[in-house]
Amino acid sequence: MKTSLRNLHILMLLFCAILTSATKISAQNLSAAWEELTSAEFRYAVERSEEVCIVPMGVIEKHGQHLPLGTDVFTARHTSLQAAGKEYAVVFPFYFAGQIYEAMHQPGTIAYSPDLLYKMLEETCLEISRNGFKKIIFVNGHGGNTYFLQYFCQTQLAKERDYSVYLFTPSVDADTQKTITSMRKSTTGGHADEGESATMLVVRPDLVKMERAGDESGADQMRLNLPNAYTAIWWYSKYPNHYAGDAAGATEKLGKVIMEQRIEQLSKVIKTVKADKATMTLQKEFWQRSARY
Ligand SMILES: [Zn+2]
Questions:
Q1: Measured in angstroms, how far is the CA atom of residue 281 from the centroid of ligand 1?
Q2: Is 106 within 8 Å of 242 (Cβ atoms)?
Q3: pTM for the model
Q4: What domains can you pick out in the chain, each with its CATH number?
Q5: Which residue, 15, 65, 185, 288, has most beta carbons within 10 Å?
Q6: What is the pLDDT of residues 96-146, one digit of tens each?
């Protein structure tokens, strides 16, 4: 009797150990991609990410004659997933609602209204927060989103919320910049250019048609002369083909240099955001003080 009790006890301990290691394994092998997780895995992912979720943002727009419409979404998501592989965070599915009126004249562009763009992003953040993430990092792959995202972030102070939003603002260190400059064959750029095409040669080479890179001009047409003044048509005035630069010299090697530095920088940002307690403390203090008036 005593022996069988002891055996039972050992068996139970063994069972618990197996269960614990199974939980550990599932937590270790969690995908960073939100849509790849099962519902049961999701809570482990929230825990493991320390409540950090990345929203990789792009848009659907023309990228020269040689890159796919979804270029910005592909590169932002690749950067995010690779960075999350180094420092775990959950990466939101493909997000392509972005500001892109300036390319509406080109086939395939999806240009939602400003009201919807704002509301879409606001509700996306609310849903991310409702699912347990209290730190949201935007990773932007689309130049036309720059001011919209800064404005969106500023307006986060408008009312109290239980999460913080961070915008990844990448920079290139001096050494990497030197390498990039020495590798680049073109000196101008801006859109679907040598650098962006090189990154796509890393991210989705199967979708790049380099032989078509020279089919249109990506040169500045210089059709406006308005120093110290901003107007909406500025981009179209320069680049009516929605192509800025010359992509012909793009190589996978250059793409790797650009991507690796960006991915490394983002992984550090994820780490910093995980450790950051000051933002929420200050937000709370701010809302408390604002409520008095
Ligand atoms: Zn782009």
A1: 36
A2: yes
A3: 0.91
A4: 31-287 (3.40.50.10310)
A5: 65
A6: 999 999 999 999 999 999 999 999 999 999 999 999 999 999 999 999 999
